[in-house]
Specification:
The structure holds 3 protein chains of 3 kinds.
Chain A lengths: L12 H4 L6 H21 L2 H27 L7 H18 L5 H20 L8 H20 L12 E2 L4 E2 L2 E2 L3 H24 L1 H11 L1 H6 L4 H28 L1 E2 L6 H14 L4 H28 L6 H22 L4 H14 L5
Antiparallel strand pairs in A: 1-4, 2-3
Helix pairs in contact in A: 2-7, 3-7, 3-10, 3-11, 3-12, 4-5, 4-6, 4-10, 5-10, 8-10, 11-12, 12-13
Chain B lengths: L15 H10 L15 E12 L2 E12 L3 E5 L6 H9 L6 E6 L2 E3 L4 H6 L2 E3 L12 H7 L9 H6 L2 H21 L14 H14 L4 E5 L7 H18 L2 E5 L3 H7 L2 E6 L2 E6 L1 H5 L2 H8 L4
Parallel strand pairs in B: 3-8, 3-9, 6-7, 7-8
Antiparallel strand pairs in B: 1-2, 1-4, 4-5, 9-10
Chain C lengths: L1 H31 L6 H23 L4 H27 L8 H23 L14 E4 L8 E4 H23 L1 H11 L1 H6 L4 H27 L7 H13 L4 H22 L8 H15 L14
Antiparallel strand pairs in C: 1-2
Helix pairs in contact in C: 1-5, 1-6, 1-8, 1-9, 1-10, 2-3, 2-4, 2-8, 2-9, 3-8, 5-6, 5-8, 9-10, 9-11, 10-11
The chains are: A mainly alpha, B alpha/beta, C mainly alpha.
């Protein structure tokens, strides 16, 4: 009743092609973005920022990048942690070694280094696909693990192996409070999400999806597989690299190579699959799910156990978290393999008909 | 109410006259008119041999194709017809022989290079992109001609936006021509088989090819659908002068619309010439019907 | 020269252990097309089960015989793995039959997390010992040929022998028995196998059981060497390059691949390690597999993948 498209006629191709075709959608998204920028800083407390909002924003960005590669172009990648690491350490080196280097260019340069790394380790995609490609990307992951652990130059010859950054500021405004950090990351997220959405709905996005759906046919209609796949790796690693730099600089503050281990690669892949492959909205949903779940389990499990008269030690809680996490992933994949984004669009369909049943 | 602007530019889009004729075709009931003006040889297949391991799919096949003609390739199942198209397309690499297309001779060429030379193709088993809508599928056929780079596409301003709209207009003409307007936003996986075949054809047409390879375009269709498809093929050949090479099993279709026919059997060529001549060729009859003992 | 041989032998034996884990991967992939990322978790789970059962056996039955305890623990752990296989097939695989590779991969990752949590929850998360009586002292061999002889780790030798016996047994199982034939049929073509009456679901349970037993043997050996602890799960990640090298669908490929990776790792660490800062073991196998992928994507013994349009 409220969500109908009646009266919304598209009278030019430009209108037909816009990102949010339905007026209600457009207002809803603008509303959400306004809320995120203007209201949340006043409503959320510091814990919420540090534990949920900032990780959510940064991980959404990373999930977006991974979705471009895995969801839109169909190249399975288990090396996203490596791209984050390269972005983080490259940004760190630019920030620390080049005198007077401002923050945003350092992060962008970090992203570009991640792009180069991504293109290099994306070369196997020209020869193999599927599981073999997944294993090839793991090579990137382990190589990066080793690189930042053993090659001292990357960590500025730090004796402990860990590095840190301080005194972050943008055009003189310092980024030290949770609110400032949140707004900084959110701005970058919105800009990059918009650019990515533009990419996936134009020619290159169609090339990626063609390669994903049937690469032999894609070649036959004139799409160059090399350009399509490597461009997907390039764009994806750039976004993931920027997210990595943000994760290190803003969320962690000080970090060591283990912060970007294979575990993060798995988590990113979970986010993308649970959120929905090939969907920008899906990346947000998936990131929210994976960021919030451990925290929710942590809060509720002891309480739940107490209700049954069981005392749940922290060790048991940790093990139970693993079990529930794994179980939920499997359950989700069985129930809705296309992810939360599919549930969302099904919901919207139902909303179109509401209050009528069909 | 603003109208859809039909602004076209001379270089990339369909010339207005041709576009108008396309729109005309959708309602006209034109009779099938054989007798086109065929021109020079644009493709020459020379002694192509292809084997997979021990199986010889094609042995020493040679034939040529003239510009503007409709060339049919026929033969019993397993004769190697699709393999022949795959060789022309660059999907398979033949072990021997060569193909000359518009002056360029090659044996091994990547499929996307062949596509960029002006060869388009439909598939027997429908190689559509299942994750995309009809409109997007046909738009991928325009990718050859997209000029704007990644950065412009990301920003989606000015030239990139205008180019996208231009290509959209061209694709809409094709959609009109193939009469699939109602389905343009539907994911192709949800369409019935006959419509999917039209989308396949549309995607090939979007490439504005000089040579169109059709692999059993009428397989699995009823009489009405076949008539529609025949009409499309003839219109494409008439209006754009596209040379068509098609593989087909329906003899009626072959006799009616093709200028010349190549007959394959067990990977060898057993006939080559106008339809009537091939129809009466004893080898061809033997291949289809078998000999009596 | 002697040192070189020592390194190679050590590598061969380490490689044998990789092959064991890789076998589990290959078995499941051959029969169901699923790449089982949970293999490492299964190794840990099985090893934990065996270690704890061996501990509890004397406490419950009062019999203090180590050999008996180990045998009973092995049998019990095997039974547990059967149950795990049955549950996995029933609750997970059956519902994910036609999904794409990425989804199945993620599902096995989910199973991995689940098993890790469950195993540690039931059996505990300390480091446990498995003592199956493997001798720990090394022997010096070939003293006549090389000065001082070559150091051979007896434990590794026994482990390699056990692994070899297991592989031989599996080969016989696949080639000679009816079930083995059925497994190969399913690996070739699910639908064709179903149409001649092979029950897919039962086959999958059997395959996961066998993979579970392989995981148990691998866990037993690794556990005896290193102690049973959480890091055992990373063993699976080390075995992935083996599968790539050997070919995802080949049992002999898993063996040969394991040996090559084992030797390669040891040699590269010893001879190349100090040039680049050491510790290259963590990525050498992967980069080797990567190089292989570029030249021969299907691995040494795998089947060539032909795309028909």
């Amino acid at each position: 009743m409220l969500y109908r498209e009646n009266g919304q006629f598209k009278t030019s191709y430009r209108q037909d092609q816009q990102i949010f075709g339905i007026t209600q959608d457009r207002y809803a998204i603008l509303g959400i973005i306004a809320f995120a920028f203007l209201a949340v800083p006043f409503l959320a407390d510091e814990y919420l920022f540090r534990a949920i909002l900032i990780p959510f924003v940064i991980m959404s960005l990373a999930a977006l990048g991974v979705n471009v590669l895995v969801g839109y172009c169909g190249q399975i990648s288990l090396g996203s942690g490596a791209f984050m690491a390269v972005g983080a350490y490259a940004a760190y080196n630019f920030f620390v070694r080049v005198p007077g280097m401002p923050l945003v260019p350092a992060i962008v340069l970090g992203g570009l280094c991640a792009t180069a790394f991504g293109i290099l380790f994306g070369l196997p995609s020209l020869r193999v696909k599927g599981l073999y490609l997944a294993v090839a990307t793991l090579a990137a992951q382990f190589f990066s693990d080793w690189m930042f652990l053993r090659i001292k130059w990357f960590t500025n010859d730090s004796s402990s192996g860990s590095v840190s950054v301080a005194g972050l500021q943008v055009f003189g405004a310092p980024i030290d409070t949770p609110v400032a950090k949140y707004l900084f990351c959110l701005s970058l997220l919105v800009v990059i999400a918009l650019l990515t959405k533009n990419l996936v709905r134009s020619a290159i996005g169609r090339e990626w999806m063609a390669i994903r759906d049937m690469d032999v046919a894609a070649a036959v209609i004139g799409i160059r597989p090399m350009f399509a796949k490597l461009s997907a790796f390039a764009v994806s690693s750039f976004i993931v690299g920027v997210a990595g730099a943000l994760w290190a600089f803003i969320y962690l503050g000080s970090w060591e190579p283990a912060a970007f281990s294979v575990d993060i690669s798995f988590r990113l892949l979970f986010m993308v699959i649970i959120g929905g492959l090939g969907s920008i909205m899906g990346s947000f949903f998936g990131a929210a799910f994976i960021v919030v779940l451990p925290i929710a389990l942590n809060q509720f499990l002891p309480g739940l156990g107490g209700a049954f008269g069981l005392h749940i030690s922290t060790a048991t809680a940790a093990h139970a978290e693993f079990m529930i996490f794994g179980g939920l992933i499997v359950w989700f994949l069985i129930v809705e393999p296309h992810g939360l984004a599919k549930l969302w669009s099904t919901g919207k369909q139902k909303l179109r008909l509401w209050p009528f049943p069909h | 109410m603003s109208s859809i602007s039909l602004r076209t530019e001379p270089v990339e889009a369909v010339p207005p006259a041709m576009a108008a004729r396309l729109v005309e075709q959708t309602s006209a009931n034109q009779p099938i008119a054989p007798g086109r003006h065929t021109g020079e040889v644009i493709m020459d297949v020379q002694s192509i041999s292809l084997s997979f391991g021990g199986v010889k799919a094609l042995s020493d096949i040679s034939f040529n194709v003239r510009e503007h003609e409709i060339r049919a390739i026929i033969g019993p199942n397993g004769a190697g017809k699709s393999s022949m198209l795959n060789c022309i397309n660059g999907v398979y690499q033949p072990q021997q022989g060569s193909i000359t297309f518009r002056g360029q001779t090659f044996r091994h060429m990547n499929s996307h290079q062949v596509a960029r030379m002006g060869v388009a193709r439909t598939f027997q088993n429908l190689a559509l992109f299942k994750g995309m809508s009809v409109l997007d599928n046909i738009m991928t056929g325009r990718n050859l001609r997209i000029r704007s780079n990644l950065l412009l596409q990301a920003l989606r301003i000015g030239p990139a936006e205008r180019e996208e709209i231009r290509h959209r207009e061209f694709v809409e003409h094709i959609i009109d021509f193939l009469e699939i307007q109602a389905y343009r936003k539907t994911p192709v996986g949800q369409l019935p088989y006959g419509l999917q075949k039209r989308v396949d054809l549309g995607r090939a047409l979007a490439m504005e090819p000089q040579l169109l390879l059709l692999d059993e375009p009428m397989a699995g269709m009823n009489l009405e659908e076949k008539q529609d498809m025949c009409r499309f093929v003839l219109d494409v050949n008439d209006e754009f002068g596209t040379t068509v090479v098609l593989i087909e099993h329906d003899m009626g279709v072959v006799m009616d619309i093709s200028d010349r026919v190549v007959v394959l059997d067990y990977g060898k060529k057993i006939g080559d010439g106008p339809p009537e001549e091939v129809r009466n060729n004893p080898d061809v009859i033997k291949a289809y019907l078998g000999t009596s003992h | 020269m002697g040192f070189f041989l020592e390194t190679v032998l050590g590598g061969l034996m380490a490689g044998m252990l990789y092959s064991l884990v890789a076998l589990g991967f290959v078995l499941i992939f051959k029969a169901s097309g699923v790449f089982n990322f949970a293999q490492g978790a299964m190794v840990l789970f099985a090893a934990l089960a065996m270690a704890r059962f061996a501990e509890w056996f004397p406490a419950y039955t009062g019999i203090n015989n180590v050999v008996l305890a180990n045998l009973a623990a092995f049998a019990a752990a095997g039974a547990v793995m059967f149950v795990v296989a049955w549950i996995v097939e029933r609750l997970v695989l059956r519902h994910l039959v036609n999904q794409e590779a990425a989804t199945l991969l993620m599902a096995t990752l989910g199973i991995a997390y689940f098993l890790e949590g469950l195993g540690q929850g039931i059996f505990g998360s300390d480091i446990y010992k498995i003592d199956i009586g493997m001798p720990k002292e090394p022997i010096m061999a070939f003293e006549s040929l090389f000065q001082g002889g070559i150091l051979i780790n007896k434990e590794d030798l026994y482990a390699a022998l056990i692994a070899a016996v297991l592989v031989a047994g599996l080969s016989v199982f696949f080639q000679k028995t009816g079930t083995g034939r059925a497994l190969r049929a399913v690996a070739d073509d699910h639908q064709a196998a179903q149409s001649i009456g092979i029950p897919l679901n039962r086959i999958w349970v059997i395959v996961w059981c066998v993979a579970g037993v392989v995981a148990l043997v691998a866990g037993m050996i690794w556990g005896s060497k290193l102690g049973v602890q959480f890091s055992l799960t990373t063993v699976a990640l080390r075995a992935l390059p083996v599968v790539i090298l050997g070919g995802l669908t080949s049992v002999p490929g898993a063996i040969v691949g394991g040996l090559i990776i084992g030797v390669g790792e040891k040699l590269s660490e010893v001879y190349l390690g100090h040039y680049v800062g050491g510790g290259i073991e963590i990525w050498f196998a992967y980069v080797l597999a990567l190089g292989f992928l570029l030249i021969r994507p299907q691995g040494l013994f795998g089947e060539k993948i032909i795309d028909r349009v």
